[in-house]
Amino acid sequence: MQDIMIIASLLVFFNVMLLAILVPGGPIENRDFSKLKGVVFWGFNLFLILLGVMSFITCYLLLIAHPNAIFITKIIAVLYFIVYIIDLAGIFPKSPTKMSKPLILFEIINGSMAVFLFLFVTAIGHIGS
């Protein structure tokens, strides 16, 4: 079971790294978000930062097989999926700059990885019970 928890931890780490490479102004995310107002801009950034920090904490919780690690990982996977889906659907964040094809591809891959993470830890939860 410990090997499976290590794999789950690596999957969480992989998901947070996939999010990190999409930092605005980077090589993939080149849209202009200057029209987002202060509270919305900083609120969204704070949410993404907290999601990343919680992901790293969850990696550790999975490694030590904390009793709530699977549940927390499911929540994180759903949050990652929501972030990508609302962006791909054009709901939020809105930008006058269109999404580039590489960005669309990365967000589809990242959303798929979030689904895979959710399914993987759900299966672990069923194996462990």
From TrEMBL:
**Residues annotated as domain DUF8051:** 6-122
Pfam hit, one: DUF8051
Q: Where is the signal peptide?
A: none
- Key words, A-Z: Membrane, Transmembrane, Transmembrane helix
**Quick check: keyword Nucleus in the entry?**
no
On the tree of life, the source organism's domain of life is: Bacteria
- Asked if Amino-acid biosynthesis is a keyword of the record, the answer is no
Please identify the protein, giving its name as recorded.
DUF8051 domain-containing protein
